[in-house]
Structures are given as C-alpha cells and as structure tokens.
Amino acid sequence: MRSICYSSGDVIFREGEFQPTMYDIEKGSVGVYLDYDSGQKKQLTVLKEHQFLGEMGLIESSPRSATAVALEDGTVLREIREEEFYDCLQQEPERLLLIMKQLSRRIRENTQEYQEACRALSEQQEAENAGKETSAELDQKLETIRQKAKTRNRGYSGLHSAFFEYVQDDLDEYEGKREVVPVNLVERLVVRKLAPKDMHVNPEDEFADPEIGPSDRIINEYVQEVKRLYIERGALFPSPIVVYKMALGGYLILNGHHRWAAAIKCGLKKVRATIMNPPK
C-alpha cells in the first residue's frame, strides 16, 4: 500500500477503466462524476477524509462506474491493490465493517427511492383511473424519480455503458466492410492465436443490440477466468472464440463476444480462435 498526493483537478480514475484498486482518503476531498469528460458532467457525490472510494471495482473486479477527481491541492489517498486487500482486512478488520456500512447505506437509499417511486406511480395511476390530471407537484416528483433512476442505472452499469461505446465505435467503423470470405481446410482445422484487436463485433448478434448489449455479469465472470487461467497460469481461454475471416482483413466474431470483451478489458495480446467458413 502506498499514499499518493494529488493536486486539485487530478483524475484518480476514469469511468470505464478496469482498475481493481480502492482508495482511502487520508487528506482532502474527492468528487465523483458521471460523463466527466463531456460537456454535461454530473457530480454524484463529494467524499471527505476517512471515507473510501473504488471498493466496488476491487470487490467485483469490474470497470469504474464513474470518474473520481481530486478537489483540493494536497489531497492524499492511500492506494490498496487487489493483492493487498485481504492482508489489509486481516490487519485492519474494522475496514470490512466500514465497507459493509457503506454498502448498507446504498441499499437503504435505493430501497427508499424505490418506495417513493412506487407511491408516486400509484398516485399517477389513481389520477388516470379517475380521469383527472396529475398535479404539478406529482409531475415534478415523477421527473425527479426518472432522473435519479437514470443516474443510478449509469452508476451501477458503467461497464455496459462504457464498453457499449467501444462496441458502437467498432460497428460504425466497419459498417459496410464486413464481407467475409471462405478459408481453406487447414485454416479451419487449426486453432489459431489471434489478437482481440483484430476481431470485430457482429452487428447481427444481440451483443450489438442497444437494448441488450454487453452483459456486465458475463464479462466479469470471464474477467475472473482470464485472471485465473492467464495471469496466474499463463493459459488462454479453453474455449476458442469462433470467427469468420473478413475480406478487408480482421475477423468477424460469430460466437464468443463476451470472452472477447473480457480479453479486451484485461489487455490480452492473443486469444484462441477457430475460423469458420461462412454459409453458402
């Protein structure tokens, strides 16, 4: 564990980054934002001394759901990496209680918001059944609930939103360029080791559907598998990603989008792949 000093405006981590590390605030304050690099950034909260941040990225091994920024010169954070976390809990068991309290508070806040939403929706339904217009106060309450829900969903599904941007960029870049070609028998029989960056999203797969998109849970499961197989043992995924060969170079993913996503998130240089012939 080490302590790091930040100046005001320094970015500690960015939304969508894969970084299994948490931080204790020893001095200063930290702002947490959605869409920090856009012109419509939204501040979620401000954290002060003796609070911590980034624990979900460490516990779940998931990408950051928001961007954290130092708000004061001389802000000091103690960095706790994944490999240090369990030793830290043994040395400071009270830390686990603090994490549980913070998670409990979030659950309680979510429950209260859910109950408020249920009451407001019930009032709206009663007004509609009676043929009455809803009051301005109720309309405002419903709009507030919608905005909170939008923010909450972004906060807890940062991987989906951040990675879907990557997927969408790939879809846009290769639109009209996905013609696939047959390969010879040897290429079909041999399991290859291909670079994930040379593989491209299949627009016909639900992985590319904005209403469905990448699954945080599935990608995180594969990220854990990558850690177990590759980082600890030097092995690759046992199940190859199935691809077509593209006429303009690269490969179109037929099966294994979530394994490919995990490989991208973990920075793997190569993955196992099987090349198939397109249907005639």
Question: Could you outline the blueprint of secondary structure elements for this entry?
Answer:
Layout: E1 2-6, E2 11-13, E3 21-27, E4 30-34, E5 42-47, E6 52-53, H1 55-60, E7 67-70, E8 75-81, H2 82-91, H3 94-129, H4 136-156, H5 158-173, E9 180-181, H6 185-189, E10 192-194, E11 199-200, H7 216-231, E12 241-246, E13 251-255, H8 257-266, E14 271-276
Parallel strand pairs: 11-13, 12-14
Antiparallel strand pairs: 1-8, 2-7, 3-6, 3-8, 4-5, 4-7, 9-12, 10-14, 12-13
Helix pairs in contact: 3-4, 7-8
Structural write-up:
The chain is of the alpha+beta class. The protein is built from 8 helices and 14 strands. The strands form 3 sheets. Strands 9, 10, 11, 12, 13 and 14 form a 6-stranded mixed sheet that branches. The longest helix is centred in the middle third of the chain and has 36 residues, at 94-129.
Short description:
It is built from 8 helices and 14 strands. The protein is α+β, with helices and mostly antiparallel strands.
